[in-house]
Amino acid sequence: MPLAILGAALAMSSQAHAQKSPTERIDELEKKLEQSLKQIEQLSSEVARLRGPVPASTAPGPVSTANSDVNARVAQQDAKIQELERQVEQISESSTRGLKLGGVPLHGFADIGAGTSRQSNLYQTGPKGFTVGNFSLYLTPEFGDRVKSLVELVFEVDRNGEVGADLERLQMGYAFSDALTLWGGRFHTPYGIWNTAFHHGQQIQTSLSRPRFLEFEDRGGILPAHTVGLWATGTLPVGGSRFNYDVYTGNAPRIGIDASLPAPGGVLDPKASGAAHHASTLGFRAEFAPRGALDGLKVGLHGLRANVSDDSAGLNRTRLLTYGPYASYTNDQWEILSELYKFRNRDLSGATGTHQSNAWYVQAGYNTGRGTPYIRAERTSLDQTDNYFAFQNSGRSYHATSLGLRFDLTASTALKFEAGRTLMRNVKAGGGDDSFTEFRTQFSIRF
What we know:
Blueprint (H helix, E strand, L loop, with lengths): L1 H15 L5 H29 L14 H31 L4 E2 L2 E16 L9 E11 L2 E2 L3 E11 L5 E15 L2 E9 L5 H4 L28 E13 L2 E11 L2 E4 L8 E4 L10 E10 L7 E14 L6 E14 L3 E14 L6 E13 L5 E10 L5 H4 L7 E13 L2 E12 L9 E13 L1
Parallel strand pairs: 10-13
Antiparallel strand pairs: 1-2, 2-3, 2-20, 3-5, 4-5, 5-6, 6-7, 7-8, 8-9, 9-12, 10-11, 12-13, 13-14, 14-15, 15-16, 16-17, 17-18, 18-19, 19-20
Helix pairs in contact: 1-2, 1-3
């Protein structure tokens, strides 16, 4: 029985918190194990007490009323224990009965939605009407206790209605200890909170949308959301708290010009196949997670440096340098996220010098038990004389506010509603502004 309860606890926790880091999941599983063991101990003590030796009757005759009550309670307790074991076995079987590909468990996410927007025609916003979102499949085959891998394949519909497949993540790693795991391949660049905690599966994030500037590259993000290279990560104990770190290097992205997009039409390309003239990315993330009264709080710093070129006629080269703090606080009710990105980019191919910009967001949500309302404010101030932003289609300054509501229909499905107001800066040739409002809904699942 203890092994069955432990197996169920591990299975349920791994499904409910797949988006969290391995160390965080281990901590949660240890807490659940401790709770389960306490329950087992209490049940065992109760059964032992109920099944204890019954005093013999001093005189022949029918069994005393007291003994009859004890026997009835023992029988009732046995029935409860058997029912508990049956339920645990069912939960354990259902958690491991999922789809498998070549013997490896297959997991995935999918979403559908609808939306509309009120806008002028100066800036391209999201699609109107009904839409099919992402269909994300991921596998996590392991080859022993230390060799691990992760593969994420995403099918998505582009702005022209065509379905494309992207190999979003393909990483292989070796876990030396909790203090060091070394990964190689294509991975989510570990900066800040959002790009580390939330991947392409929409069901795992509270909000319907990501902050606009932290979108994935092909969705208008202004930062390299993916890196192809090497990544070292780990957790170190600090008293009763934890210190988490990430250090990585890889191919620098390139701004590819897409003629089908509004001018200048640049989109970041993480260069998964390498490049004729290699340029590198270097980055880090350092995070402190205290325990005790501040349990649930995380604070950290992140930084990224890369030499980025573009495909324009001028073949511009920019040294991208971004850094800043971030913080999050989560418990059973609250989720508060905040990130700041400072940019100090240097023109390596011209004479425009160094350009300073910034971007930030703050999001807060509260789980009422029936739903989770949330609000997000985000803002970018991006220097338009900086080639890194000037040649990206989404490299414009903006202010945005979003209000939303999430309902968890089950542990693996979510229904979300979101309304947002955005003010875009300098979208006309003459430097004018544009504003628009969007209303969106989404139904997302995971399996």
